[in-house]
Design goal:
The chain is mainly beta. It is about 0% helix and about 40% strand.
Amino acid sequence: MSKNYNVVLNSNYCTFDTVGNAVYNKNYYIDWSAILPDKKFKLTFSFVSEVNYVDLLTEIPIISIDFLNMANIIRSNQSSISYQAISSNILGLVFPTNIDTNAHHAYFRADKSFNPPIYLSRPNQNNFNVKINDNNNPTGYWLDDNTIPGSMSNYVLILSFEECD
């Protein structure tokens, strides 16, 4: 049976340099060599946010982590307007769950079965960035549907690293 390592990222506990940033752009520090062996892993994730204002969901929130595209090692690809697949740091998508449909309140979530896994070696970039972008071209930060749009609410993102044999 393979070992599983979970890393919890809480947007309230980011590094000091991004404390004042909106939630869609946070930096974290993890000493990967202290918690993960130098092996190959299957990466999946779970995500839940606090309540957001969602009316029509005109933009899809996309979670990106910059350590997925380090040292020109392509771990994930995405289509582009040039008819070529390009390297990507996209971790996956999150979807809304309505709390109050009349007030347009919903939280965003994803579980390990919603997005496909990503296979990678132990990350070596201890300082890394998590962004929540939209699916527009060009991409921007995800904003809610409120009259004065706001960023994604605080979240907890759990990265699950399962050792590969």
